Amino acid sequence: MKKGPKSYLFIVLFLGAVLILIGCLFSTRGKPFNTEDPGENHENSPRNPAKISPADEETNFPHPYGRVPEGPLSWEDDSDFLKTCKRHQAILRMSAFQIAFPDPWPGERANVVLAAELLTGIVVQPAQYFSLNQAIGPYSSERGFKEGPAYSGSNIISTVGGGVCKVATTLFNAVVLANLQVLERHPHTMPVPYVPPGQDTTIAYGYKDFSFINNNAYPVVIWAGTKGDTLTVAIYGEELPPPVTWNHEYLGRQKRSTIYRDNPNLAPGEEKIIIYGADGVTVKSWLTIENPDGAPVTLNLGIDYYSPLAQVIERGPTFN
What we know:
- This protein is α+β, with helices and mostly antiparallel strands and 320 residues long.
- It has 2 domains: 64-241, no CATH class; 242-320, Single Sheet (Resuscitation-promoting factor rpfb fold), CATH 2.20.230.
- It has 5 helices and 16 strands.
- The strands form 5 sheets. It has a 4-stranded mixed beta sheet, with no helix packed on it.
- Helix 3 packs across helix 5 (164-177).
- The radius of gyration is 24 Å and the shape is globular.
- The chain starts with a helix and ends in a 5-residue tail after the last strand.
- The relative contact order is 0.16.
């Protein structure tokens, strides 16, 4: 039976409507991952759900704070990643956060890499409680962790597992930007060089944890990775969260001190900064969540107190 011109016109109009509908769906939700062909060169560029408002433009550190990465991440064409996301319908990147840790201490990079590997691929089911200490701890030499830097009061010490707080902090920021419910978080005693005050978290196995609950109706997948001195943590799920904005207000500041140490290996008059240090601050933090079905919601995160981190400068010998 032959189709007339009207039949063909109807088919064309119907297909056009379907394509427009699909285009609208993808433009509002972001582009899902291709979970069928890991070799396809795809771009994952959903609407960026994060806006970072640093607490203050002034920083004592020589490099910028962490940020939300743009464009595809290095693992997003990996077959294991794609299979995990397909299995749990985690087709969208809900959030991601990235920090740099230049000039790491001996063992620090190894601890960050190991902690990121242990975190990668964890699936948190709906209403499930997640504890970072339970997921990747204990941080012992028997489990492969090495000596690295850690804060102890107003000092920097070397301890087994030092550096894993960088993974905790990066995960914390990804969790916040994914609009997941944080249950436990502890700030450092002094400012850290990789995120603004108020956006860090410290962990210590047995008494300081970072935890959250998946308050969505679908599972979320956590993935982490390092490249050089850069750490990235991302969270994937079935839907995009509402845009989340960090907000900070400084309530007080205490200037850092400077400690000089003699170093006979330096040239006369030469100085070398060993620890840049940071001013102590009192900071109030809150989140603004832009729910699409109503007015923005403000979530108060409280006030954090940071002691000053002394600057340490080594200098060469002087001759009178």
